[in-house]
């Protein structure tokens, strides 16, 4: 995944002005007009996840309205026009197609949503139910998923509301936070300046941790298989190999091009889960004697259950970026829209996996249900390999390079922007697959 531009310059009014090229220079050719009404030009972008903004000014796409000769404001690569008047019936969704390149269909978005949420966390659901017990596990699974989904609906609704107020088709998560705080209670208005940077920082840190876990999971899974059937290489060597694959996957420019990998990943998930369920139901599913409805220490166990489930189902960077890149974003938050359908399916699958896995193995349930599978058969090996590929195909979805890129871009690093951008990308990917080497497994 790469970006089309690098926000290097601002004109005298604070708005960026780029020539009509893929990678802009410091030239101020084709500046934004200032003839009584400022014609605000929006961007043409490949993929805009949470934390990024409108990253390239296109001289071919005009805004749906005009401002009253007021300057635009710029924060970390995002152009927010100072709108003088916005039509009361302005609908951001109607103009989203003007700035999103390679937008995804509803089905493609659903595939991305399921693959972005179905991963290694699902394999840990049996031990989550072991910590919480069957009763608390089932109730908690439904309740926590509902609260998380409601929070995401509120976030997306707030972004849409701010976009409508400003008269822009799309606004990033951080800038939406800034304008929401500005329009909120006066005693919180002082947070409007640090708020967007805090949002970017926490999102980047959250996704960094996820990506490091992904690298560790892929490397350890492939090493176990390789040691038994192929080469005996050190874990660090597999980290390097995994890092090289991550760099290749990270070059996918938009979600539309990522759809074939998402589809392949979903088939691998189905195949891997099918093999896991085959061993769980082999010989009949008789509840293990250790299985309990409520554990001896319910509060401590539920805290562990909560952390496992939230890590598994809550992928805020993926969820918001998917809505930002849809052809019909209005279908995302409908009662029977893409998001609700995906979350219901994900919640049911997580709850079912945790319940049957815990009933099968009881207190012997391990951190990943694949570790409970028999080692003398080839099928468990295929399960590990399938999920390793699933995580690899998932990698471009939460890759937090965008956050770091826009965090550093306001420093005016200089030309050439393309090479600076690539350097930051490769450096960040190197950091991601280097850190897990020092995390105990």
Automatic annotation (TrEMBL):
Residues 1-73 are annotated as: Disordered. It comes from the Eukaryota. One of its GO terms (molecular function) is L-amino acid transmembrane transporter activity. Residues 17-34 have a biased composition (Low complexity). The chain crosses the membrane at residues 132-151, 197-217, 229-249, 261-281, 301-324, 336-358, 378-411, 423-439. The keyword Membrane applies. This is Proton-coupled amino acid transporter 1.
